[in-house]
Every structure is written in structure tokens, then in C-alpha cells.
Write a structure and sequence with these properties.
Elements lengths: L7 E3 L11 H15 L3 E4 L4 E2 L10 E3 L19 H13 L3 E6 L3 E2 L4 E10 L12 E8 L19 E7 L4 E7 L21 E3 L4 H18 L3 E4 L7 H15 L4 E4 L6 H10 L5 E3 L1 H12 L13 H4 L4 E4 L17 H12 L5 E5 H5 L12 H11 L4 E4 L5 E6 L10 E6 L4 E6 L8 E4 L8 E2 L5 E6 L3 E7 L1
Parallel strand pairs: 1-2, 1-16, 2-5, 5-12, 12-13, 13-14, 14-15, 15-16
Antiparallel strand pairs: 3-4, 6-11, 7-8, 7-10, 9-10, 9-11, 17-18, 18-19, 19-24, 20-23, 21-22, 21-24
This protein binds calcium ion.
The site of calcium ion has 6 residues, from loops.
């Protein structure tokens, strides 16, 4: 489900110090975001995590606590209160911006009580391999949510709703313990033999009570918040069949489109194809292979720019691809650290924002900086988002024919009077590319909106021109 010329922003980074006030900050910024061309926002997980006021949101504790109950030492979440969240979603709607909720269903953390049960230790490197006899373990699997006192739902979680956990309180041992009579789920990633288990108390989607509760919660969430779509966390650790059925159920029940993008973290595009097939095209995916291509291009002097789209989802199934440059997991000091080098950031963003294919997602940490890591905002990124909205329309002509210099043009269309661009990227020295942008621009003067090249270019009578670029940069040529 492609969104024509929309642009998503991921409105958080791992270390942001938002003082439990992010929802209000977004409300204040909504109009500005709409003006520059943002059409959708990926909000961080809105429910209470085990880390309370400091939980980024992935240590999911109580999915019904959106900053309403005194649990884990705080009423508000890291991002604010339930009322501030609901208000923020209405403000975004008024501004014409869609809102995508981050959904964390793989695991739970911060149990209210321990339970003593039989379990078997498995190997960290091969989760299918049992490495000890069954033993009695004491584990955090009982969730009663005393601070909420059964409001919205009286469902309580116990060990039968989980497959396994990575800590035995009896022996203080860190290991993966698979619970008695449980098997890891099918339809998950096959790394480590079976990658169902990721962290915390791993939810068992083979248990019908779990499936029912997740459906009930999802319907409650959509109806309460008026959210317009989802970003699904860690989908490779959850049966693809579960999420397929879950999203189909919610679309049917709520009558909403509920655009959905999943985080399937892999550099192997074939795994993404498999997931899309199993989920019957209901769930778009982040183009992780493209992120890794950007990372390699920014790091490796011998990288062949002409192959920047090789092995990516945007190339092989662009309608299902959400493209991005970096995110909260790839930023410095995070689990999947692979941060694209500063010199290549705008080049990468031009490749996701100014082309016809894909649904781009801009990272908060790139647009506004990451003070914790001393990372500055990317100068001119906001301008690129604007250029997408104003000018990136019409026929696309590609010139991906050189290791060090690539380029493309968009010829513009009649609907967007200012449209038409020519983009050139260099990963070596200064250079130029001869490209066709259309006879209708003959005789017109073009300038570099990135302000790297100061000279002007005049389009020739046949609609061609030599578009210049400085070393290790991108130039975006637009009509003066
Ligand atoms: Ca799992």
C-alpha cells in the first residue's frame, strides 16, 4: 500500500531527554511539520514500560496504561500522560498528519510476581538445542497490574501465556529457559535455530487466550486513540501468521485502513519477500537492506554507487518498502549500531526523498540532532523534505552508470507547477553528469538547492544539461 509522495517522520531517538513532555512538544510542532511536507508521524510506544519514566517503550509492561496509572514509579510514561497523548493525536489529525503507533507484542517485562515452574535451558546459539535436564525455575511471569486495578481489562498474564524467559531468580542465572510443554513458534526468523525468543518473558502466540487478548487490546487501542496506522516492533520474533490475522481483524472491526509497517531486521531481502508473502501483503516493511547499503557506501571507499539499490526492497518490491537512512536502533551506542557517516547523510536522504519509489521515513536524530552523542542536526535535510513535496514529481530518468557519480532527473508534472529536479551524487571528487530533464525546461536557469555549487546551469534546447556536483556531496538542481 504505497503512499504517494507522503513522508513519515520517526519522532524520537533513543537518548532524547524530553522530560515526560514529548506529546506536548509534538502538538506544538505539528503545524510546522505539516508545512515542510511531513504527512505521517511514527510515535514511540505509548504504553508503560518496566523502566517507567525512563523506558523508551520497548520494555513493555502494561499495554493498557498509556500514562494514566501509578505504575513503575510514575503516572506519565517517558513521553507524557494519556490525556496529552490523546490530545496530540487530535492535533496531528487537525494538521493533516497521520499517526502510526509503535506496537510491542513480542514480550513483556517487569512482572508483578514470580512463579515457580518446570523449564529447560536451551543454547544461546541454537534455541532448538536443549542443554540440560528439566529443572524448577522461579521466573517473572505473573502480571496483575495492581496500579490499574482491572480498568479496561481484567486479563492477567501467567506463565502459560509465555514460552520462555532469560532469568531464573532461584539461581540468579542468565540463560534462555523454555517452559514445560512449550515449543518456540513457527513462522519466525530462523537465526539461532529459531528466533522466537528475543528478550523478557516471550509471549506465546500459540495460546488462544493470548490471541484473543491481543485482538481485544488492539481494538480498544484503535477506538480509544483514533490512531491511523502501526509500526510493528520486532516482527521476525513473532509468528507472521499471528500479525497477518491481527491486522486483518482490526481493519475489519474498525473499518479503518490502518497502514502498517513492520520492523523485520535483516540485510537479506529474500527474508523480507517471504514475510510479505506469508502476511499476504497486509504489512509493509522497512527496507533494512537499503539502510545497510547506505552504511556501506558511507564507509567503504570502493563501494560502487551504481549498485546502491542492489538487493533492496525498494528495487524488488517498492510498493511494500518504507525507506529510511537511520533509526533509534542504528544510532551510536545502540544494539544495531550502523550509523551512516555524516558526509553521506544528505546523499542517502536524496535517494529516499527525491525518487518515485518507496515511502520514506526521516529520523528525528537526523533532523534535530542527538545531543547525547554530540551529533548535530543535518543542515539542509528540512530543505530536502520540502523539495520532495514541491518538486519531486513526473517521469524519472536514471543515470546509475558510474562507480563514483550517479544521478537522476524528475521531469515534473502539470499538477505541480514548480516541479522538476535533477540530482547528482559524488562519492569521489568534483564532477558532472549529462542528464535529460525535458524540453519544456529549455533555456531556463537552474541552481543547486543544496548550495554546494554556486554557478548556474542553463538547460539546452533538447532538454539536456551537464549537472555539476562537488566531491562527496549531493547537488539538487531546481529551476531558479
Ligand atoms: Ca517471540
Amino acid at each position: 500500500m504505497k503512499k504517494i509522495n507522503g513522508t513519515i517522520i520517526q519522532y524520537f531517538e533513543w537518548y532524547m531527554d524530553c522530560k515526560q513532555n514529548l506529546w506536548n512538544q509534538i502538538s506544538e510542532n505539528a503545524e510546522k511539520l505539516a508545512q515542510i511536507g511531513i504527512t505521517a508521524i511514527w510515535l514511540p510506544p505509548a504504553f508503560k514500560g518496566m523502566g517507567g519514566a525512563y523506558d523508551v517503550g520497548y520494555g513493555a509492561y502494561d499495554l493498557y496504561d498509556l500514562g494514566e496509572f501509578d505504575q513503575k514509579g510514575t503516572i506519565k510514561t517517558k513521553y507524557g500522560s494519556k490525556d496529552e497523548y490523546l490530545n496530540c493525536l487530535q492535533v496531528l489529525k487537525q494538521a493533516g498528519i497521520e499517526s502510526y503507533a509503535d506496537i510491542v507484542l513480542d514480550h513483556k517485562m517487569g512482572a508483578d510476581m514470580l512463579q515457580t515452574i518446570p523449564a529447560t535451558k536451551v543454547d544461546w546459539g541454537n534455541h532448538n538445542l536443549e542443554i540440560a535436564n528439566q529443572e524448577t525455575v522461579r521466573v517473572g511471569t505473573k502480571f496483575k497490574f495492581p496500579g490499574r486495578n482491572r480498568k479496561y481489562s481484567d486479563f492477567e498474564w501467567n506463565w502459560t501465556h509465555f514460552n520462555g524467559i532469560d532469568y531464573n531468580n532461584n539461581t540468579e542465572e542468565h540463560a534462555i529457559f523454555k517452559f514445560k510443554d512449550k515449543e518456540w513458534s513457527s513462522f519466525v526468523d530462523e537465526e539461532y535455530g529459531n528466533f522466537d525468543y528475543l528478550m523478557g518473558a516471550d509471549i506465546d502466540f500459540e495460546n488462544p487466550e493470548v490471541v484473543e487478548e491481543c485482538k481485544r487490546w488492539g481494538k480498544w487501542y484503535v477506538e480509544l486513540t483514533d490512531i491511523t496506522g502501526f509500526r510493528l516492533d520486532a516482527v521476525k520474533h513473532i509468528p507472521a501468521t499471528f500479525y497477518r490475522d491481527w491486522i486483518q481483524y482490526l481493519r475489519r472491526e474498525t473499518g479503518k485502513e490502518l497502514y502498517t509497517v513492520g520492523e523485520y531486521w535483516t540485510g537479506d531481502v529474500n527474508k523480507l519477500h517471504n514475510y510479505i508473502t506469508t502476511t499476504q501483503g497486509e504489512i509493509s516493511l522497512f527496507d533494512v537492506p537499503l539502510h545497510y547499503n547506505f552504511y556501506s557506501a558511507s564507509k567503504d571507499e570502493n563501494y560502487d554507487l551504481a549498485k546502491i539499490f542492489e538487493g533492496t526492497l525498494i528495487k524488488e518490491n517498492s510498493a511494500m518498502a518504507v525507506t529510511f537512512v537511520d533509526n533509534h536502533d542504528t544510532q551510536p551506542k545502540q544494539a544495531l549500531e550502523s550509523f551512516v557517516e555524516p558526509w553521506f547523510k544528505l546523499c542517502a536522504y536524496s535517494l529516499i526523498l527525491l525518487r518515485k519509489e518507496g515511502y520514506p521515513c526521516v529520523f528525528y536524530g537526523d533532523l534535530y540532532g542527538i545531543p547525547y552523542s554530540g551529533i548535530e542536526p543535518i543542515y539542509k535535510l528540512e530543505e530536502l523534505i520540502r523539495l520532495r513535496k514541491e518538486k519531486a514529481y513526473g517521469n524519472q530518468n536514471d543515470y546509475f552508470d558510474n562507480n563514483n557519480f550517479i544521478g537522476w532527473t524528475r521531469e515534473g508534472d502539470e499538477e505541480h507547477i514548480k516541479s522538476g529536479i535533477a540530482v547528482v551524487i559524488s562519492k569521489a571528487g568534483d564532477g558532472e553528469k549529462r542528464m535529460y530533464i525535458g524540453e519544456k525546461f529549455a533555456g531556463f536557469t537552474f541552481i543547486d538547492a543544496m548550495e554546494n555549487c554556486e554557478e548556474e546551469i542553463t538547460i539546452e534546447e533538447n532538454g539536456w544539461a551537464n549537472f555539476r556536483v562537488k566531491g562527496k556531496s549531493v547537488s539538487v538542481w531546481v529551476k531558479k
